[in-house]
From TrEMBL, chains A, B:
<dbReference type="Pfam" id="PF03992">
    <property type="entry name" value="ABM"/>
</dbReference>
<dbReference type="InterPro" id="IPR011008">
    <property type="entry name" value="Dimeric_a/b-barrel"/>
</dbReference>
<keyword id="KW-0503">Monooxygenase</keyword>
<protein>
    <submittedName>
        <fullName>Antibiotic biosynthesis monooxygenase family protein</fullName>
        <ecNumber>1.14.-.-</ecNumber>
    </submittedName>
</protein>
<feature type="domain" description="ABM">
    <location>
        <begin position="2"/>
        <end position="91"/>
    </location>
</feature>
<keyword id="KW-0560">Oxidoreductase</keyword>
<dbReference type="InterPro" id="IPR007138">
    <property type="entry name" value="ABM_dom"/>
</dbReference>
<dbReference type="GO" id="GO:0004497">
    <property type="term" value="F:monooxygenase activity"/>
</dbReference>
Length: 98, 98
């Protein structure tokens, strides 16, 4: 399992960014190996969004990156934001002490 | 609910960073309002770690930041890494299409 953490700095219209992003998310939700995502927005810097998405494997994620649909979405997103993506693995996790 | 996303760039020893971080996490797990955390490590930049932690409220998180224990942990962490924390709210989330 891999985690994509992608920080977007929005240059243009926030609503346009969220609309384009929602369309891209609908596509991702149909893709093999996609597990889930959360798009976060900074409380102090409203132009900063962070997507945290879980994928079954690096190969699953890379296959989607190579798709025509993703290519179109990322072009639209690049018109209103600057992405900064990277893939991660979880090294430690925890829940409240019972 | 708020999400802390904190990017650490580790300057010193990675094992020391993970050990100190694990101690801090044990403290966080006992705190009111703590819901869960995942510490991620970049697959391409091994010196970059990202903590994504869920808190019931901003007040719960800020109370912990003001605690003596947290003050000690962050001093130790600052000796081996550079933190870049920010608080976020989730604006969109999704799971695979059924």
């Amino acid at each position: 399992m891999v985690t994509l953490i992608n920080t977007f700095t929005v240059k243009g219209d926030f609503d346009a960014f969220e609309r384009i992003w929602a369309q891209s998310a609908e596509f991702m939700r149909t893709q093999k190996g996609f597990i889930g995502f959360k798009l976060h927005r900074s409380l102090s810097r409203p132009d900063v969004y962070v997507n945290v998405a879980l994928w079954q494997s690096r190969a699953d994620h890379q296959r989607v990156l190579a798709s025509r649909e993703f290519g179109e979405h990322i072009k639209e997103l690049a018109a209103v934001s600057v992405p900064d993506p990277d893939l991660y693995t979880v090294v430690l996790e925890g829940v409240p002490v019972q």
